């Protein structure tokens, strides 16, 4: 969500992750997990960082989360 601190952004990421976990949505197409999981890349900006840079950072953080074992967030 735009305009929040890193600390608040990570709380939001954890809340989203918990809601998806609690929903226990079946994921029949996955060979990795029986239920849907979520990995997220979290970024923050003071408003001076270009959007393209933020997207690139979020993408990098997303792949860090996936490489650490999925179903988590990374900053």
UniProtKB/TrEMBL annotation:
Taxonomic lineage of the native organism: Bacteria, Pseudomonadati, Pseudomonadota, Gammaproteobacteria, Enterobacterales
Domain of life: Bacteria
Domain GGDEF: 1-75
Pfam families: GGDEF
Protein name, as recorded: diguanylate cyclase
Recorded GO MF terms: diguanylate cyclase activity; GTP binding
A GO biological process held by the record: negative regulation of bacterial-type flagellum-dependent cell motility
The keyword GTP-binding is assigned to this record: yes
């Amino acid at each position: 969500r735009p305009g929040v601190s890193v600390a608040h952004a990570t709380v939001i990421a954890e809340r989203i992750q918990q809601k998806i976990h609690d929903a226990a949505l079946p994921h029949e197409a996955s060979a990795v997990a029986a239920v849907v999981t979520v990995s997220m890349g979290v970024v923050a900006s003071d408003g001076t960082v270009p959007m393209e840079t933020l997207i690139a950072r979020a993408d990098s953080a997303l792949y860090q989360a996936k490489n650490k074992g999925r179903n988590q967030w990374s900053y």
